[in-house]
Specification:
Helices cover 34% and strands 20% of the residues. By secondary structure, the protein is α+β, with helices and mostly antiparallel strands. Strands 3-4-2-1-5-9-8 form a seven-stranded mixed beta sheet. A two-stranded antiparallel ribbon has the order 6-7. Helix 1 crosses helix 2, helix 2 crosses helix 5 and helix 8 packs across helix 10.
């Protein structure tokens, strides 16, 4: 990895130069995961990082971020954490006040400040999935976010599949492969993937209501190990890395990462049937 020294207060022009040195190009279609705090001090905060991405991508480039929401679901790990220690009455009260998803106003959960900054940008559009939406800005934004089926989190009827078709790239800014959403598309493309039931609050015909649906059982618990193997196999050909400020950053092919995951998962992932009986 070629190091780029951190400076006291990264500026937008400095971040732009470093993104270009990493390999981000004008006209790229870029799925970005970011931890702003990993950079150290950034003059202008998330707006500067977004400005730098806009500068290096240019008017022909498209920026995409995950804007997932788990606060409207009672089958999410976030909900399970929230209800820990609550009484039955308190749990019922919480469920009764959980807001339905609104693509225009519902904030993302745990996606970081940059993702929220993109979501709130007037030039951005957002897909309509009530739990795993994406926001995008640029000439391909509508194509990527349109027709995100509500019963397909991250599969063939989601923005990830459109990004695959467009041969997008993934930019990990200060986060590891455990945050690489692209690997989830590989989960959908393995033979007979396990499925589960999800439930969330939506608004239909002006009414708040609970909705259940079946989809692939998403599991990112081994994505760190998957990513490490992918990076070793790529041997620098499909994964470029550098430091921007204090943030370890990677640029990789979304197509190559999905294809690698599709082949890696069946032979490395422990399925429910393979786990010990007492697990």
């Amino acid at each position: 990895m070629r190091a780029i020294s951190a400076i006291d207060g990264l500026t937008e022009p400095a971040i732009t130069r470093r993104l270009a040195e990493l390999g981000v190009e004008e006209g790229d279609i870029l799925l970005v995961h970011a931890s702003l705090s990993s950079f150290g001090r950034v003059a202008g905060g998330a707006a500067s990082v977004l400005g730098a991405l806009g500068r290096v991508l240019g008017t022909r480039g498209t920026l995409v971020v995950p804007t997932f929401t788990s606060g409207n679901s009672d089958t999410s790990s976030v909900y399970r954490d929230r209800i820990h220690g609550l009484s039955d009455r308190e749990r019922a009260a919480l469920r009764n006040t959980m807001p339905p998803f609104d693509p225009e106003t519902t904030p993302s959960t745990g996606m970081g400040v940059l993702a929220e900054t993109v979501r709130c940008d007037a030039r951005s559009v957002r897909s309509g999935h009530p739990q795993t939406s994406f926001a995008a800005r640029g000439p391909q934004a509508a194509r990527i976010t349109d027709n995100h089926h509500p019963d397909c989190h991250l599969g063939e009827h989601s923005p990830l599949a459109r990004l695959y078709e467009l041969r997008a790239r993934v930019l990990l800014l200060g986060v590891g492969f455990d945050r690489c959403t692209a690997f989830h598309l590989g989960e959908y493309r393995v033979p007979d993937p396990p499925r589960r039931t999800y439930r969330c609050v939506v608004r239909r015909n002006g009414l708040r209501q609970w909705w259940s649906y079946d989809d692939v059982a998403l599991d990112d618990s081994d994505f760190g190990r998957l990513g490490a193997d992918f990076e070793r196999a790529a041997a620098g050909e499909h994964v470029r890395s550098s430091l921007i400020g204090a943030a370890h950053c990677r640029l990789l092919s979304l197509v190559d990462s999905v294809d690698y995951a599709r082949h890696w998962l069946p032979s490395h992932r422990v399925t429910a049937e393979q786990r010990p009986a007492d697990s």
